[in-house]
Design goal:
Blueprint lengths: L2 E6 L2 H14 L7 E6 L4 E5 L4 E6 L11 E4 L5 H8 L8 E3 L1
Parallel strand pairs: 1-4, 1-5, 5-6
Antiparallel strand pairs: 2-3, 3-4
């Protein structure tokens, strides 16, 4: 199972980027196994087991691990280096 995080400076930015990613890679709705959407999170699980999770930096807690992360370039660099990068393998991230 692959876990991919989308960190946004705000919840809205993270959710928009996740929705754009899903559209860009042309994942069809039949490829989506489960969607968890509530005021606190948006998680999309695909039939192949890959999980995409939109995370707003003001309200996330450290500790969860991810295989890859997309990071909002508007997030403060100190937060990126101190809180986000320890949650992912070395060099497995990209800014958007």
């Amino acid at each position: 199972m692959k876990k991919i995080a989308i960190f946004g400076k705000t919840k809205r930015r993270a959710r928009i980027e996740l929705k754009n990613m899903i559209n860009e890679v042309e994942i069809k709705y039949m490829d989506i196994c489960k969607v968890i959407k509530n005021p606190h999170e948006l998680i999309i699980e695909l039939n192949n087991g890959t999980i995409y999770k939109a995370i707003a930096t003001p309200n996330f807690t450290m500790g969860e691990g991810f295989n890859f992360a997309y990071i909002d370039a508007r997030i403060n660099r100190n937060i990126v280096h101190e809180k986000i990068l320890p949650m992912i393998p070395y060099d497995q991230y990209m800014y958007y």
